[in-house]
């Protein structure tokens, strides 16, 4: 049947659609109960013969529609399967015991909808988090085969993150797959047998270079050590660039180039891990103090019904959500992270593209990040280890569009600290959606048992980490001289709201006195 001719029949059905009904005629077991909800069936090309054009007119004409329909048939020759049910004939998920102490006892995470895997799936969702949509687009455009089998040769981690006791505790780690970085190795046999099992974590090594770190080294705050802080290689400048008299001085500054030739700065030797979210739904629900049924319903309803199996497959407990993941940067020997005798410095940082990348001064995100990287390196140089965890939670997980709308409201309405949180609530309905309860999972995966130095003023992050069983011996915030003037509104509002501050104290009465820069002051 043609994918392009898909029509949905919304007639009430007491059970799954005919295409999904067990062939033995047995009734399907009840999915997650939804009061007042009905079951609907969906049929493909209902009332149309195979190869006929779609019922609606096409701006490309019938010829183009027929051609596209043929391509769709070739790419997806099977019927559309909107959802599945636990007791359908042939449905037999690969066993998965969350918190299993070995890969064999835990089992692989399988979410693939390939015909060879769909009846064996034990997870809802798709790999690659928020990038899964681009993968689907690549398949539709035929730049990627849906049956492409990755070659994982030589992709194993160059840095060992070995088993930690928390991996075997189903309550300690509920938002990532602790075996995700060694999938090609520990599930090699199952992959060879045809199961589509993919890594959700990748570990690698790199050098990072930042102009702020170059400056810290030039000022003597970060000495060269040949292990963590390394001398960058000199730039090689083509002779024609230096000798070309017609070159506009604004295009090439010979003096600036020569300065970098003489002092190319430094780079930092790091180990790092990229982590995609993998949620164990019962554990996530328990972490937030809600029922699994409510969690599933909310995830289904408020994503536009994206994943029906959240409702129809209560037997599947693992969900790969379409959200951003996180990256871990490790300065110093990674094995020091699980050695309680070693000093450990940590910052958990939530993404802020405007500040972290482009240097916007309305917040303290980039100054905090750079300060934390410096302190992490200094800790490693003292014989410890520094860890930066970077979460993709742009704009307090409200998104950048919402954040910019809040900026507009603030700048037009008088940008004072007493209105800081209220401005966000007026637009988003809530001041923060990062919900740090899941955040400590990555620390448990890394084997961190105590934190000597926590660089953060967030009470939510502190409470989440400590309540998860990891003590924090010392916490400190951003030094006053590193706070941009226009971000004073944010800092004072947070201090007055109860965020940690090692120095300045701010009362509610003080907030009206802290005012940010207006747009007029910034215009030239």
TrEMBL record:
The record's InterPro entries line, in alphabetical order, gives: GTP_CH_N, GTP_cyclohydro_II, RibA, RibA-like_sf
Q: Where is the GTP cyclohydrolase N-terminal domain?
A: 79-302
Q: Which GO biological process annotations does it have?
A: riboflavin biosynthetic process
Kindly name one Pfam family recorded for this protein. GTP_cyclohydro2
Q: Name one GO molecular function term.
A: GTP binding
Asked if the Swiss-Prot or TrEMBL record annotates the protein with the keyword Nucleus, the reply is no
Disordered: region residues: 1-71
Q: Where is the GTP cyclohydrolase II domain?
A: 343-475
Gene3D superfamilies the record matches: GTP cyclohydrolase II
Please state the span of the N-terminal signal peptide per the UniProt entry: none
Keywords linked to the UniProt accession: GTP-binding, Hydrolase, Nucleotide-binding
Source organism, top-level taxon: Eukaryota
Query: What family is this?
Result: Belongs to the GTP cyclohydrolase II family.
Q: What is this protein called?
A: Cyclohydrolase
Species name for this entry? Calocera viscosa (strain TUFC12733)
């Amino acid at each position: 049947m043609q994918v392009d001719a898909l029509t949905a029949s919304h007639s009430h059905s007491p059970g799954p659609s005919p295409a999904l009904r067990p062939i033995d005629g047995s009734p399907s077991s009840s999915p997650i109960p939804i009061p007042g909800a009905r079951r609907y069936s969906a049929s493909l090309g209902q009332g149309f013969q195979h190869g006929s054009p779609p019922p609606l007119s096409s701006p490309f004409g019938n010829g183009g529609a027929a051609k596209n329909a043929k391509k769709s048939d070739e790419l997806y020759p099977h019927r559309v399967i909107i959802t599945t049910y636990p007791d359908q004939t042939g449905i037999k998920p690969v066993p998965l015991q969350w918190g299993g102490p070995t890969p064999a006892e835990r089992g692989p995470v399988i979410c693939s909808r390939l015909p060879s895997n769909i009846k064996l799936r034990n997870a809802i969702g798709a790999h690659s988090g928020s990038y899964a949509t681009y993968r689907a687009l690549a398949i539709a455009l035929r730049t990627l085969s849906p049956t492409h089998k990755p070659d994982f040769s030589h992709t194993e981690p160059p840095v060992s993150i070995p088993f930690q006791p928390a991996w075997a505790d189903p309550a300690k780690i509920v938002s990532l797959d602790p075996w995700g970085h060694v999938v090609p190795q520990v599930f090699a046999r199952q992959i060879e047998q045809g199961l589509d099992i993919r890594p959700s974590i990748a570990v690698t090594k790199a050098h990072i270079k930042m102009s702020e770190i170059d400056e810290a080294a030039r000022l003597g705050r970060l000495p060269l050590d040949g292990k963590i802080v390394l001398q960058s290689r000199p730039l090689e400048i083509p002779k024609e660039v230096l000798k070309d008299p017609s070159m506009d001085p604004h295009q090439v500054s010979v003096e600036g180039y020569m300065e970098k030739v003489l002092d190319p700065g430094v780079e930092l030797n790091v180990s790092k891990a990229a982590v995609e979210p993998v949620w164990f739904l019962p554990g996530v629900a328990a972490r937030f103090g809600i029922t699994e049924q409510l969690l599933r319903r909310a995830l289904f309803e408020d994503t536009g019904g994206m994943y029906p199996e959240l409702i129809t497959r209560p037997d599947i407990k693992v969900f790969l959500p379409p959200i951003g993941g996180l990256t871990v940067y490790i300065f110093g020997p990674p094995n020091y992270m699980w050695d309680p005798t070693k000093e450990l410095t940590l910052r958990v940082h939530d993404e802020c593209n405007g500040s972290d990348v482009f240097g916007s001064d309305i917040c303290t995100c980039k100054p905090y990040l750079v300060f934390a990287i410096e302190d992490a390196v200094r800790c490693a140089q003292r014989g410890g280890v520094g860890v930066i965890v970077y979460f993709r939670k742009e704009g307090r997980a409200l998104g950048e569009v919402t954040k910019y709308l809040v900026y507009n409201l603030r700048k037009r309405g008088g940008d004072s600290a007493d209105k800081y949180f209220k401005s966000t609530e007026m637009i988003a309905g809530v001041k923060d959606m990062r919900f740090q309860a899941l955040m400590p999972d990555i620390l448990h995966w890394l084997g961190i048992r105590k934190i000597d130095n926590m660089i953060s003023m967030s009470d939510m992050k502190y409470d989440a980490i400590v309540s998860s069983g990891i003590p924090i011996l010392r916490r400190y915030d951003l030094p006053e001289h590193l706070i941009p003037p226009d971000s004073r509104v944010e800092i004072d509002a947070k201090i007055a709201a109860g965020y940690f501050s090692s120095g300045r104290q701010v009362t509610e009465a003080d907030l009206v006195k802290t005012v940010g820069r207006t747009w007029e002051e910034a215009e030239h």
